[in-house]
Amino acid sequence: MGRKKAKKVKENRLILSKKEDEKLSRAPHSFVFYRGNVGGNVMDLTMDVRRMMEPYTASNLQVQKQNVWKDFVAVGGLLGVTNILSFNKTQQNVTLRLARLPKGPTLYFKVKNYTLCKDIVSNLKRPQTCEEQYRNPGLLVLNNFQDKHKEGSKDINFVDPHRLCQSMLQNMFPSLNVHELNLNNVKRCVEFSVSEDKSCIEMRHYSIAVHPVGISRRMKKLVTKKEIPNLNKFDDVGEFLMNQGDGSASESEAEPEEKSKVQLPQKMTGNGNMKNHKSAVRLTELGPRMTLELLKIEDGLCEGKVLYHKLISKSEAELEQLEQAKLNKIKEKEYRKKVQEQNVKRKEDQKALNKEKSIQGMKRKHAQDGEDPNAANAKKTTTWNQGRGGAPTSKSNSFNKKGTNDKTPVKQGKSFIKKSRSMKR
User: Fold this and answer.
1) What contacts 42, CB < 8 A, 6 or more positions away?
2) CA distance 389 to 391
3) How many whole angstroms separate alpha carbon 95 and alpha carbon 109?
4) Are the C-beta atoms of residues 206 and 191 closer than 8 Å to each other?
């Protein structure tokens, strides 16, 4: 029985591991990095956003100065990366580039304001941060992205920037299956909210906690706290529950609003959070916090047709002119490529022809001398080998007779000069 049970346990583990691998492969992955000299604050902001995108992000991504966007695109294709977030800093402001791999689109944002995680946590009275919160992805919340008033009066070629931005943000986070979702794994939420005047997008990052409601504060203190309160002043627990005041209950804690009360479909972690019982959902900000302004949308990956630009607007004639110039540029590039291929082929043919001519000339020369070209080549090879280490040739004998092969240098003094002068006379 023990062996059969162990075998079943192994099979179940394999099935679960396969499901986890499928879930991991389907989930969107991201690269978060900065480019250029951005300063310490933007570096910290990049690390905070990278932590917010966990666990489906490259936490230990090492970026060097010589790396370019093509490097990240090439590596991201091998690792299954679907989104790239790049921070940059100019003299005026901080920018964020959000791109979808492998073919775009690309969104350009201006970071108007931002607050780091350490600044938010330091101002909280009771921060709710732990490592377990980042083992599962955050819950995405989108607010006020659709404009119902302008929805009916849109042209076919018109691109709604907020709707496109909404789909990009949705594809950054994994989709949820409500029937298989375990509420205990939902520890965080990321909110993107468009302002009323549609000018900017607010980003917030919260931790989610659930507390039971419908019981008194004193009972909640007994149920939820791990440590039992001090009951020395009371005869029994009933007196503690019925007594008012004495500072036994925290007066600083406000009662949760009716909107935050929900009926739990599952039993959740925490004392008192039972199934089909009401509990209050509380959000505690984790950071970072950003205010984004959408500036431009491009059709491709950091290139291509400009679908939207906030600062520059062009007429139909200008757009047609730009499109025609782009087509002419593509045609010119194809023509230059074709001409270059023809030139390379012509040079290779000419090279082969010259080689054939030289071979024919060598054959004619050997035929005139009455020698076999193969025998002549063999004779040259033999002579060369003998000169290197074999039997001495005639040239080598004459070379040795002169004495220049000896180690002792040849003396040429005044007597040699006088003899040479007399011989000339």
Assistant:
1) 34, 87, 89, 94
2) 7
3) 6
4) yes
What pLDDT, in 10s, does the model give residues 127-156? 888 888 899 999 999 998 887 655 545 566
The token pair at 123 is 């101002």
Could you tell me if 194 and 144 are in contact, meaning their C-beta atoms sit under 8 angstroms apart? Answer: yes
Q: How far is CA 340 from CA 20, 312, 332, 333, 337, in A?
A: 51, 38, 12, 11, 5
Taking 90 as the threshold, does the pLDDT of residue 392 lie above it? no
Distances from the Cα of 368 to the Cα of 364, 373, 379, 388, 420, angstroms = 6, 11, 18, 31, 44
Extended beta strands in 8-143, E state:
29-34, 81-89, 94-100, 106-115, 139-143
**Residue type present at position 76:** G
Instruction: With H, G, I as helix, E, B as strand and everything else as coil, classify residue 215.
Output: coil
Token reading at 69: 């966007």
Nearest to 83 by CA among 160, 135, 142, 137: 137
d(CA 292, CA 192): 10
pTM: 0.68
Specify whether the CB–CB gap between 43 and 71 falls below 8 A: no
Q: Which residues contact 409 (CB under 8 A, 6 or more apart)?
A: none
Say how far apart CA 164 and CA 167 lie, in whole Å: 5
List phi, psi (to 5°) of 108. -110, 125
Whether the pLDDT of residue 397 is over 50: the answer is no
251: its two tokens: 């007066």
Question: Do the Cβ atoms of 134 and 55 come closer than 8 Å?
Answer: yes
Of 34, 84, 98, 32, nearest in space to 296 by CA: 98
Please provide the size of the chain in residues.
425
